[in-house]
Amino acid sequence: MYKIGMYGGCFNPLHLGHVNAIITAANQCEKLYVVISNSNDPNEINHKERLMWLKTVTHDMENVEVFEIFDNNDTKYVYDWESGIKQVKDYIKDKIDVVFCGSDYIGTNTWEKAYPESKIVYLDRNDINISSSEIRKNPFKYYSYLPRIVQKHFIKKVCVIGTESCGKSTLVRNLALKYNTSYVREEGRYVCDEAGGIDNMQKYHYHNIVFRHKREEELMMDSANKVLFIDTDSLITLYYYKLDFGIKKKEDKEFEALAEGISYLNNYDLYIFLEPDVKWVQDGSRTYGEQSIRKKNNKILKDLLKKNNIKYISINGDYQNRYKKSIELIDKLIGE
Q1: Do 59 and 177 share a domain, yes or no?
Q2: Is residue 263 within 8 Å of 218, Cβ to Cβ?
């Protein structure tokens, strides 16, 4: 058993090979320090995100402590070893008895030069043969090699939007089934039921919709598999609000700002816009069934999306055609 050990890396991203190495090293030390190296590389995942991953994964490992060091170079491949070593030793303070590193460093003498006073132990990378560089090329190809908390970072969000009765809920549900993942339901439908019907909707109900919808999205991320499907966006709620109340009073403008702000934060990876060319069906919460009104409202919604710089892909045709076109877009998005 070593007293003080150290294991470092960029963890860009953290994968199960890293996790296995940390466990193996921690089993051999009274105290193991895990060091995250950061550079100025703009392609590097945010250092706070990587720190959060490692702290979460090691949370119950009582003898493991995670900390960061920073390098001013633009890439990890031009590394200031002298500065890095000083930062590590300044933080740990005690003598480092052992340094753990991957077996890919065997023969380079890198760590022996950096820490001549420490024993160097090489961990067999073939135990879990994966690398962060390979994962970055195609995260979904190596998705199973990522801890759950890291998988969430790569999940793509697909939002299906459009006016009423254009098949959004049906398509979202079917796509979630096809991709074996979760989805965010349209909260407006349920709030409308709770309000006693569309004619009884008040302004505060629309606030409830946008907040509940965003909360549901956060919850569904925990069970999503590579892609999360979202039925409507806060701008759709704003669209219905405008149809019912307009933007006349201060409270209306405040809701407009709220809905637009949430939409900006959503920043979904793909917006699929469904044209209103399928049969209108009354489900108890719909009002605008006449085709001329559907077309007019469709333009109003598109103008609202344009105002908020939402780039979407428009899909029309029957339900099967919409389904097939959506699959093509999603497979391209996740690289399958």
Answers
A1: no
A2: no
159 and 136 in one domain? no
CA distance linking residue 122 with residue 22, whole number of Å: 12
Closest of 185, 142, 205 to residue 336, by C-alpha: 142
What pLDDT digit, counting tens, does each position of 209-219 carry? 999 999 999 99
Query: Does the pLDDT value for residue 288 go beyond 60?
Result: no
**What is the percent of the chain with per-residue pLDDT over 70, rounded to a whole number?**
94
| Residue 288 and residue 163 in one domain | yes
Residue 107 and residue 65 share a domain: yes
Tell me how far apart the alpha carbons of residues 245 and 77 are, in angstroms, rounded to a whole number.
Answer: 58
**262 and 130 part of one domain:** no
* DSSP per residue, 92-152: H-S---EEEEEGGGTTT-HHHHH-TTSEEEEE-GGGG---HHHHHH-TTTTGGGS-HHHHH
What 3-state class would DSSP assign to 212? helix
More confident residue, 7 or 199: 7
The one-character DSSP state at 225 is B
Give per-residue pLDDT as tens, 248-262.
999 999 999 999 999
Please report, as a single letter, which amino acid is at residue 75: T
pLDDT per residue as tens digits for the range 163-174: 877 889 999 999
Note whether 58 and 64 are within 8 A (CB).
Answer: yes
Pull the structure tokens for residue 121.
């132990």
Please count the structural domains in the chain.
Answer: 2
Compute the distance between CA of residue 238 and CA of residue 240 in angstroms, rounded to an integer.
Answer: 5
Q: Is 167 helix (H, G, I), strand (E, B) or coil?
A: coil
Q: Is 70 exceeded by the pLDDT of residue 231? A: yes
What pLDDT does 280 receive? 53
Residues 187 and 329 in one domain: yes
Which domain, by its residues, includes 31?
2-150
CATH of the domain at 67: 3.40.50.620
